[in-house]
From TrEMBL, chain B:
Keywords: Cell membrane, Copper, Electron transport, Heme, Iron, Membrane, Metal-binding, Respiratory chain, Translocase, Transmembrane, Transmembrane helix, Transport
Keyword Thylakoid attributed: no
Lineage: Bacteria, Pseudomonadati, Pseudomonadota, Gammaproteobacteria, Steroidobacterales
Name this polypeptide is given: Cytochrome c oxidase subunit 1
Name of the gene this protein is made from: ctaD
Domain Cytochrome oxidase subunit I profile span(s) in chain numbering: 26-531
Entry's family note: Belongs to the heme-copper respiratory oxidase family.
Length: 41, 531
C-alpha cells in the first residue's frame, strides 16, 4: 500500500510543486515547438 | 552538513504492512525501495544488452576489413548501443539510486508520489522493448546515430515511429521521475534539515532533476517535429520545404549537453559521499561543492553549440561557445580540488567503493581535459567526428558515470541487502575494470589524433594495432562485468551480516546509517530530528 501524506499543508505543498514543475516542462516542450514554427514562417 | 539524531522507535513496528507476496509486489509496487531495486536491475540488464552491442562493434573493428557484420547492421549497433546505454542503463541506474537513497537520506517514509513512481518505472520496459523491436522490422533499427539528425534519421524504415514513440516514453518516464525527486526533496525533508544541511548526493540529484524537467521536453519537442515532418507534411527540418536541418541540431544539443550533466552530477554526489567516509574526514568545502554543482548545471545550458562548430557559425558564436565551455572547468576544478583536499591527511582505507571513487577522480579528469581540448574551436575542426571524441566521452561516461554507479553499489549494497559482499572479488572486479577500461579507451585518443573517423565498420591499415588493443580491452572489460553481476546477486542471496553503519571502521555520515541493514519497509514513519 502506498504511503499517504496525511498532513494537509504538506499535501498542498506537494500539489503546488507538481503543478509548477509540469508548467515548466510544458513551457519547454511547447515553447521550443513554437520557436520552430515561428522560424519556419 | 546535517548531524542527525534519530530514535529507533521511528521504524520498528511495520510488520502489519510489509511487502505484498508474489509478482504483485513488483507490478503494483509503490515502495521506494522496491521501485529503486527494479530500476537498478533493469539498468543492469540494459547495461549487458548495450554492452553486447559494444562488443559486436569492437569485434568488427578488431582488424581492418569487413569480417562479421554488414555496414548497415554495424551502424544500427553504434546507434542502439548509445541509446540503450544512455537512456536504459545510466539514467535508470541513477533514478534507482535516487529512489532508494533520497527518502533514506532526507528522513522521509517514501517518495512523495509513490503511484507515479510505479508508472514512471513500468513504462520503461515497454519503451525499450519497442526500441529493441526496431531491429526486427523492415528497414531495421535506427542507424543514423543517437542524435537522430535529419534527413538521415528520416530514412529509417518501419522502425521510425517505434523509435520516436520509445523516445517519448523514455522522456515521460524521466520527467515523472524528476518531478518525484524534486517534490520529495522540497516537501518531505525531516524537520531541521535545511537545504544546506542536505547530504550532497541529495543536492546533486535535486539539481539534476531540474535539468531533466527543463531539457527532456526539448528532446520530446524535437522528435515530435521529426514525426510531423515524416507523416504530417511539415518541413521543420527539410530544406526542400524551406526548413532547416541545422535547427534540429541546435534543438537537439540544447537537450544533449545538459543530458551529459544529468549523467554526471549524481556521480559527483556519490563520490562526494564515499570519499569522506573512507578518508575519515568531513567533505572539504561542502558549500562550495553545492555552488559548483549549480554553476555546472547553469553553464550546461549555454554551451550546446560546441557540438556543432564544424556545422558553421559566426566567429562571435564560436568564441562565445568556446569560452563558455572552458568556463565549466572552473567549478569542475573546484570539485576535483575539494575531493583531493578531503583525502589530504585523511586516514584513507581502500575498500571497493573508495577504490572506484579514486579511479573516478583520476579517469574522469582525463575525460575532462580531453573535453577542454575539444572546446578549442580550431582544434575541434581537426578532432570532430574522430575517435578522439569517442575516447573523450567514454572517459566521462564509463570511468566517470559507470564507475560511480559501481562505487555506489559497493557502498550501499550492504545497507540495502543486510549482507556484506565478497570484498576480494569486488577488489578483483575493480582492478580488472580499471585496467581494461584504459586498454579499451586510451588507444582511441591516438586513433582519433591520427585521423580515424568514428562510426565506420572498416578502416585504413595504419589504424590496425591500436584498434586490436582497444578491442582486447573491450572484451576484457565486458567479461569483467559478469563478475560484478555475480557479486551483486551473491550479496542479495546471503552473506556475512552487515551492521547498521556497515562501514564501522570508516566515517559513514547521514540518516541512512541510523537505520537497520536492511532498512525497514517504510523507512522513517516518524520523522527523525536533524540538528
Amino acid at each position: 500500500m502506498a504511503t499517504e501524506i496525511r498532513d494537509p499543508e504538506r499535501k498542498r505543498g506537494v500539489q503546488r510543486t507538481v503543478l509548477w514543475l509540469l508548467l515548466i516542462a510544458a513551457t519547454f516542450y511547447f515553447g521550443f515547438i513554437a520557436m520552430a514554427v515561428m522560424r519556419a514562417q | 552538513m546535517a548531524h542527525a539524531h534519530t530514535h529507533d522507535a521511528a521504524h520498528d513496528h511495520h510488520d502489519d504492512h510489509g511487502p505484498a507476496k508474489g509478482i504483485g509486489r513488483w507490478l503494483f509496487a509503490t515502495n521506494h525501495k522496491d521501485i529503486g531495486t527494479m530500476y537498478m536491475l533493469f539498468s543492469l540488464l540494459m547495461f549487458f544488452i548495450g554492452g553486447a552491442m559494444a562488443l559486436v562493434i569492437r569485434a568488427e573493428l578488431f582488424q581492418p576489413g569487413m569480417q562479421l557484420v554488414d555496414p548497415m547492421f554495424f551502424n544500427q549497433m553504434t546507434t542502439m548501443h548509445a541509446l540503450i546505454m544512455i537512456f536504459g542503463a545510466v539514467m535508470p541506474a541513477f533514478v534507482g539510486l535516487a529512489n532508494w537513497m533520497i527518502p533514506l537520506q532526507v528522513g522521509a517514509p517514501d517518495m512523495a508520489l509513490p503511484r507515479m513512481n510505479n508508472f514512471s518505472f513500468w513504462i520503461l520496459p515497454f519503451a525499450f522493448t519497442m526500441l529493441l523491436g526496431t531491429l526486427f522490422v523492415p528497414g531495421g533499427g535506427p542507424a543514423g546515430g543517437w542524435t537522430m539528425y535529419p534527413p538521415l534519421s528520416q530514412q529509417l524504415g518501419d522502425g521510425f515511429p517505434m523509435l520516436i514513440f520509445a523516445v517519448h516514453l523514455m522522456g515521460a518516464s524521466s520527467i515523472m521521475g524528476a518531478i518525484n525527486v524534486i517534490v520529495t526533496i522540497m516537501n518531505m525533508r525531516a524537520p531541521g534539515m535545511s537545504l544546506l544541511k542536505m547530504p550532497i548526493f541529495v543536492w546533486t540529484w535535486l539539481i539534476t532533476a531540474y535539468l531533466l524537467i527543463a531539457v527532456m521536453p526539448v528532446l520530446a519537442g524535437a522528435v515530435t517535429m521529426l514525426l510531423t515532418d515524416h507523416y504530417f507534411g511539415t518541413t521543420f527540418f527539410e530544406a526542400a520545404g524551406g526548413g532547416d536541418p541545422v535547427m534540429f541540431q541546435h534543438i537537439f544539443w540544447f537537450f544533449g549537453h545538459p543530458e551529459v550533466y544529468i549523467m554526471i552530477l549524481p556521480a559527483f554526489g556519490i563520490v562526494s559521499e564515499i570519499i569522506p567516509t573512507f578518508s575519515r574526514k568531513p567533505l572539504f568545502g561542502y558549500d562550495a561543492m553545492v555552488y559548483a554543482t549549480a554553476s555546472i548545471a547553469f553553464l550546461s545550458f549555454i554551451v550546446w553549440a560546441h557540438h556543432m562548430f564544424t556545422v558553421g557559425m559566426p566567429l562571435a558564436g564560436q568564441m562565445f561557445f568556446m569560452l563558455a565551455t572552458m568556463l565549466i572547468a572552473v567549478p569542475t576544478g573546484v570539485k576535483v580540488f575539494n575531493w583531493t583536499a578531503t583525502m589530504f591527511k585523511g586516514s584513507i582505507s581502500f575498500e571497493p567503493p573508495m577504490l572506484f571513487a579514486i579511479s573516478f577522480l583520476f579517469l574522469f579528469t582525463i575525460g575532462g581535459f580531453s573535453g577542454l581540448m575539444l572546446a578549442i574551436v580550431p582544434a575541434d575542426f581537426q578532432y570532430h567526428d574522430t575517435y578522439f571524441v569517442v575516447a573523450h566521452f567514454h572517459y566521462v561516461l564509463v570511468p566517470g558515470a559507470v564507475f560511480s554507479l559501481m562505487a555506489a553499489a559497493y557502498y550501499w549494497l550492504p545497507k540495502w541487502t543486510g549482507h556484506m559482499y565478497n570484498m576480494k572479488l569486488a577488489k578483483a572486479h575493480f582492478w580488472l575494470s580499471t585496467i581494461f577500461v584504459n586498454v579499451l579507451f586510451f588507444p582511441q585518443h591516438f586513433l582519433g589524433l591520427a585521423g580515424m573517423p568514428r562510426r565506420i565498420p572498416d578502416y585504413s591499415t595504419q589504424f590496425a594495432d591500436w584498434n586490436m588493443i582497444s578491442s582486447i580491452g573491450a572484451f576484457g572489460f565486458g567479461l569483467s562485468q559478469l563478475l560484478f553481476a555475480y557479486i551483486v546477486f551473491a550479496c542479495i542471496r546471503g552473506g556475512e551480516k552487515a551492521t547498521d553503519k556497515v562501514w564501522d571502521s570508516g566515517r559513514p555520515h547521514g540518516l541512512e546509517w541510523t537505520l537497520s541493514s536492511p532498512p525497514p519497509y517504510h523507512s522513517f514513519e516518524t520523522a527523525p530530528e536533524v540538528k
